[in-house]
Predict the structure.
Amino acid sequence: MDIRLRSFTPTASGQLTIEPSAEGGRGRLTALGLPEARTQSRDARAYVVWANSEGRIVRLGELGRDRRGNGGLAFKHPSGFERYTVIVTAERSADAARPLGAPVLSTRANEATALFPQPVERTEAPSRATPAAPPDPGATRPTRASAAAGDFYAEVDGALEARGGGRLIELEGAEVAPRARGAARAAESDGRAYVVVRFRDVPLPQAAGAGVYVMWAIQPSGRLVYMGSLPADEALNRADIYVRVAGFQSDDFDLFVTAEQRRPAPEPSDRRVLSTRNARHTIR
């Protein structure tokens, strides 16, 4: 689940991503362009993230900010909340017990929800003797796991087909995996990015000393968007990977993959696995 946050200050933008977990979801809030907290209030010194459900407020943690104004916070699902509002405020102290400062970013009322994993049927992977196919955005898709999942896959396919197959993005190996390759087809529709990507010769995360690989997008403005974690098994190099993420106005973005110790990752590490060949955009 990806939720674009409303901003109450001109330069700031943010996104909330919730991934399913047995506890009701893992949240990751990413903010870009945050001014110093004191610009929101003379006494403010820190940004704090809160969950609010029918008047019950839970402090989720401090939203750290780097010198570029970018920050992130990973948090567990607030216990006992089915639906809730997430809000970022500028507070006098990072240890504030209640939100008293000016709001900076917020979801809509009760827009965030508990998210539990859905059981799916797994399809058998090809035999180990079968050579991995080269990156091919037109390759045959794996069998759909369920009717609900089929709706998602069909939506991504439909968006790409409506854009003539989508824009081709070629990925090449970086320092973590120099021999790795990838090819993606990307399209944008109604504020969402749709991507189908296939990788080849990417070592599994464990072989690279990582817990998970994460894919990111860089928009022309330099805005960084979390695109999701990648499979940690043989499907990484043998199956098309489908992605749908909100917060895009065009298909003009670059992709890259990083090696992370755990998920959700609040920001990309400096361990690059793949990067867009001849990338046009940089993080600002």
Notes: Confidence is low (pLDDT under 50) at residues 120-150. The chain is about 5% helix and 40% strand. Helices lie at 147-162, 235-238.
